Amino acid sequence: MTRNGISRVKTGCITCKIRRVKCDEKRPCCSRCLSTGRKCDGYVSPPSGSHSWAQLLRSAPPQKTIALTRLNRDGSAAVDRAALFYHRVAAPALAGCLSKTFWTTAVAQVALQEPVAGHAVLALSSIFESFTEGVPSTTTTTTTTTTFAAWHYGEALRLLRTTRDRALVLFVCVLFIAIELLRKNAAAVVTHCRHGINILNEIRAESGFLRRHVVPVMRQLSIVPFFYGADPKTFPLIDRPVFLSSSSSSSSSPTRLFASVAEAYESQMALHTRLVRFLQIGEEARLAKGHVGPEPDRKWTRRFLMIDMDRWHESFRALKAGGCRHTGRDRTVLNLLEIRHIMGRVQISLFDSASERDYDAYVDDYRAVIDLTTEAAAAEEEEEEEEAEYDNAVRDPAGSPGPKRTSRVLTNDSVLEADLSTLLYTVVAKCRFLRLRLAALKLMEALARPRENVWSRRITIVTARRLIEMEHDISLPDDLDEEDWGEKEDEEEADSVLPPEERRVVNVKFPYGNAERRGPLRNLCFFLRDPEDGHMIMRSEWLSIEEPSERSRMT
After folding, report:
1. How far is Cα 127 from Cα 132, in angstroms, rounded to an integer?
2. Confidence band, pLDDT 50/70/90 cuts, at residue 141
3. Which of 13, 96, 289, 527 has its CA 20 to 30 A from that of 201?
4. Of 188, 178, 189, 165, nearest to 123 (Cα)?
5. CB-hemisphere CA count at 13 Å for 159?
6. Burial class of residue 73, CB neighbours in 10 A (0-12, 13-18, 19+)
7. Is pTM, for the whole model, over 0.90?
8. Collapsing DSSP states into helix, strand and coil, what is residue 514?
């Protein structure tokens, strides 16, 4: 007679399995081993891809660090440090207005279960640390940090080749984009973005995890390739409707109300990606006289885009004026969204303009942007003072600080998002009223943090200063506060004397390759319009990106 056996339980710690006893499966060490004085050898990690997205997000987020020791090749010290650095420093800094839970919670949880994500997180943590320390991405010096990051990045790429889960591939692709942004590797950023968008468009039955976490972050990053020279005619777009599509834009359609600041942000990112793509396609026709644009229906495209932008702004104003009380951080984000809308509206209105003088009619918009930025900067300064008071209040008698508060939105809180300093560049470039330009330039310099934001670059400030000098035929001091240009000249005279058309810069080509770099010097191309025939004239200059303090030390 066959004996009725009892099926063995395949879960439990390694020690209890060897002893063939029931395990209570308490983590990180089971109570049964500890109560009998034995050492619990932990649990066997399940194979990659065996968890669903719901299972990955079911557990609580890690409170101290990410247990990724098993991924190290030389021991646990380096991995433990990188995991702790990601949890305490990198994740809060990468988390922006829209994607806080993605970087601080979802990434940590998936990294615990999937080795390919774990290796990518460790590489991201190490590269982020180098970025904040100002280590150049093109350095040839081999350090412990660069070796560690390179090895884990390579392991993640190797494992990704055998990963069949398309959702997991997309998830890791987002991490790769962040890595290459921090490394300032333009070609790799464009490649990873292209692959990520194509994969996202192939996934039709998306899970709640993808919809809530991955898609918003991917939409946020999808705008990046257009700033790195990607061809807008061939680069893919995310096939996911967010706000009002062009086909449904009619005067009778009701205005949609945003439920939160994050929803308004995500909706604007979708519109902003369309706007940037459209402006680049339209700019080809504007720069080359007689060139036929690649989109014969661009006037209709502009009309639909402007309708959607106006609809968005109606919903935005309703959100801003609603009964909900916004936090200080939310108010700062609202200012950022309004600035982006104002400048986007100006750019799309004048995308086919034949004269740079047309920008002079939008002086009120430039003033509004400067006022909104000043308000946001004042809120940041007030928050810095409150944070200092908080740190002093929670400091224990031994002198060690208490728990850190949430990072600010203008600095560490949005490493991958365009900060206010970057958005002000358009005001400096297109506003020809000297006092307003100088006010915008001062704000740019005050808010710029190149080690805390991938878009905040010294070359942008240097270019903005040079534009003012070229168009107004003046020489700016290193410290703009040394000479107050607004008080030095009569206000009406300063606003009435505008640069002539032949001195106005239409566009600037920023350096990308090593051939356009010589130490601290960068080769920039300024495009001006010939007043006689309307053709473009290119003016090339080498500008230094060194800080004034660095130049003074050299001399």
Report:
1. 9
2. very low
3. 96
4. 178
5. 22
6. exposed
7. no
8. helix
